Structure formats: C-alpha cells, structure tokens
Amino acid sequence: MNELTRIETTLKDWESDQEVRWCPGCGDYAILKAVQRTLPQIGADPANTVFVSGIGCSSRFPYYMESYGFHTIHGRAPAFATGIKLANPELDIWLVTGDGDGMSIGGNHTMHLLRRNLDCQIMLFNNEIYGLTKGQYSPTSRQGTNSPSSPLGSVDRPLSPCAFALGSGARFVARGFDVSKKLPEVLIAAHAHKGAAFVEIFQNCIVYNKDRFDDFAVPKGADDTQLWCEDGQPLLFAGGTKGISLDEPNCTLKIVDVVDGDWEAAHVAVHNTKNRGLAHMLIDLRITPQFADFPMALGVIYDDPRPTFEQSVIEQNAKAAEGKDANLAKLLGKGQTWTVEG
Q: What CATH number has the domain bearing residue 207?
C-alpha cells in the first residue's frame, strides 16, 4: 500500500450515528473506543478507511465507525477484504472477526489471507465462546467449558489464534485485551506493518463467558500476570523483579528472579520481533498446561515484513500489460466475427 496522506481527526469524527447495540458491559465497547482513539493518532482518513466483518457480535463493528464498511458473510470477511484491496490498493482495510467467525467456519479464509500477506489489519476478538448464537463453545473454548452445546464440559482441545496465525505464515502477530490502556499502542504497531497484521484481542463476554480472562486481565496483580513484549527490550514482568530466560539445554523458556534490576546477570532474554522461534514459545505462555504459571505474553510478539500480496499482483499485471494495446473494441473484433442484422 502506498503511504496514505495523514489528516487531522478526533475520536468524535469516527463515531457513526448508529446506536451501539452490544450487551451492557461487553468488552466490545472498550475495543471500539480503543480503535476510535487509535485512528486519529495514525492520521487515518475516514474516506480511505474500510472496516470489513463477517458474522458475530464483533461483526457489528462497521456500523459504529464513520467510514466505509462491509458486514459480510459468516467467515468470509477475508475474501471480501482481498477483493476490496485488489480493486483499490490505496484503501486502508481493517478486518473485524471473532474466534468462531475467524477460526471455525472462516478458518480456511483467514489462513489464506495470512499466507498471501494482504496489507490489512485483522482484529480477532477472542471471548472463547459463541456469543451471538447463545453461548455454544467455540474453537478457542477451554476444556471443561460448560455451554448449551457442551453441558458436561467441552472435551475439545482449544485452538490458539496466535499459533494458528504464525503457522499460516503471518508476518505480524500481536495480542491485547479489551480494557487495556496499551491496546491502542498495539493497533498502531499493526497499522505500521506493511502486510497482514494479526491482532488477537481477548474480549470479555459478560453474558456467556463472564470474567474468563480475570486470571491476567484485571488491574490487581497485572504486573505478575502480564508480559508486555517490546522489541529490543528485556522480557521482564512483576515490576522488573522477574524475567523470562531461555533454558538453552532444553530449548524452552523459564522464569528467573532479577536482583537489584540486573536483568543481564539473570540471563533474561531480550525480545526480538523477528525471531519466529521465540514468538512461538512466547505465544504458549499461560496458554499451554506446562506454562500455566507464566505471565500472558502481550504486545507485538512477531513482526517481520515481506512483500504484500496486492503489491505482487499489481507488479504481475503491469508486466503482463507491457507492450500491449489496451483496446477492448480491437480485442472483440479479433478473429472470426460476424454481424447479426435485424
């Protein structure tokens, strides 16, 4: 995508005239405000911005943004986003999806969007439940989740959206959560990445999966349960008194104590957003049973750009058109033709 012209806007400029209709207390409200705060900071232009969604609670998002938007088909938002971007590469595209919409019926479409590396921002709202269709367990629901479709507890092993994204070839993977003050920073980084930027946002479903993320997402004790990753900075948490170190013999991560702020002496690892192997290990923290006592890795976990899909398509089309006369009438008249009279 070419550099977009920055314009001055405010949060109010991005609020549509539509009544926001989510359940009172839903985490989607906080995400909506985070996005509306972020867009003025990056100088986005409503006339060049498109929000594309599928089906689900999160997919009401385009109605509430004063920009262009498409509320599309269940799981097929990536296909629409691809078509929009190829038709007009100058547009700034934000794709909004959920753990059911994007990881179940739309999993295949999400995978291909990521491997193709279309220049867009993908926000996947993960509440670990099907909210719109009344609380069935989703691909990300934890084992034991009680729901209308799993009254005895889900026996499925949950899918990790960030691990899925990395495995699909994503070149940007990040995490945040609905009420985090740092979520706009994550979104700004996603927008700065040229290519498919995948952001998993943990989102509280107040009705069907209330407080699911309280083990790390509440302010009390956050220093001990949140690991905010920043490129080139040591992986510290608990107010800098603990860190994440690479246990080289076992090629795994471990928690170490940091004494008097000397993280180097404790062999705390320095985050490198281009290190794909490190990204895979960080994504597993607190998600997989063997790392259940670790903090949740948040922020930009992986960021290693490569040429975008639409850029490659444009270059290919330009090469194919070299030396050719773009004359439709001439093309239609080529070869055997005849005229039907009367």
A: 3.40.50.970
